[in-house]
Automatic annotation (TrEMBL):
Pfam families: DNA_alkylation (PF08713). This is DNA alkylation repair protein. SUPFAM superfamilies: ARM repeat. Gene3D superfamilies: 1.25.10.90. The lineage of its organism: Bacteria, Bacillati, Actinomycetota, Actinomycetes, Kitasatosporales.
């Protein structure tokens, strides 16, 4: 049964839709059949998530199961707001809620908007979280594998790079470009904090990595240094 708050959020999303934004989404998201795009900007959804952060998990579940893309995205952002305020067992319960519903996190924007801010805080808090990344990275779902990679953004920002390096090696032969791009993105993020660590990693492994991963990883390097690695691929 839907609640009044949930219906109010749905009405607001439809009222904030922009045809031009929907046209852009159709070009960049390649939505699955049956996925309805409204055309709501991400900053607008973030604002709504803050307003509706008190939604029940039943309401969040209804949003995640929706065939409307922005409803799923906003549900994930509401969940992120709740994770940010939670601690300990409550945070772990929210993470489990998310992990049980990753089948609905089924496009790159949904992954990238949720993995670092829903899983990320828990990865920092839970010292035995490596098994979770292993589980996700071994999934048959491309989106689960991308979730594993992008979730390490929180670790990178905290100065912990080894989980990302391990995933790059584990997924270097992944068949999906969406995973290759995410690997390169995370290496590039490490280079923002510790360029030498990325250069040393690429010196050892660049020839084993997908070309698109290397190209993304080296975007912040000096042109000559970047060319040295790209030529090897």
């Amino acid at each position: 049964m839907t609640t009044a708050r949930l219906e109010a959020l749905r009405a607001e999303l439809r009222g904030l839709a922009e045809p031009r934004v929907r046209a852009q989404q159709e070009r960049v998201l390649s939505p699955a059949d049956g996925d309805e795009l409204l055309g709501v900007r991400v900053p607008v959804m973030r604002g709504l998530a803050r307003t509706y952060r008190g939604l029940t998990l039943d309401d969040v579940d209804a949003l995640l199961r929706s065939g409307v893309h922005e409803e799923r995205f906003t549900g994930l952002l509401v969940l992120a707001e709740q994770v940010r305020r939670a601690r300990g067992g409550q945070r772990a319960a929210l993470v489990e809620f998310y992990l049980a519903r990753t089948a609905h996190v089924d496009n790159w924007d949904l992954v990238d908007g949720s993995a670092p801010v829903v899983l990320g805080p828990w990865l920092l808090e839970e010292p035995t979280s490596a098994h979770l990344l292993d589980r996700l990275s071994g999934s048959a779902s491309v989106w689960d594998r991308r979730i594993a990679v992008v979730a390490t953004l929180a670790l990178i920002r905290a100065g912990a790079y080894e989980p990302t390096f391990a995933l790059v090696l584990a997924l270097r032969r992944d068949p999906e470009p969406m995973v290759h791009k995410a690997l390169g993105w995370m290496l590039r993020e490490i280079s923002r904090h510790d360029e030498r660590a990325v250069v040393a990693f690429l010196d050892r492994h660049a020839t084993e990595l997908p070309r698109i991963t290397v190209r993304h990883a080296t975007e912040r390097l000096a042109p000559q240094e970047r060319a040295r690695f790209v030529r090897r691929r």
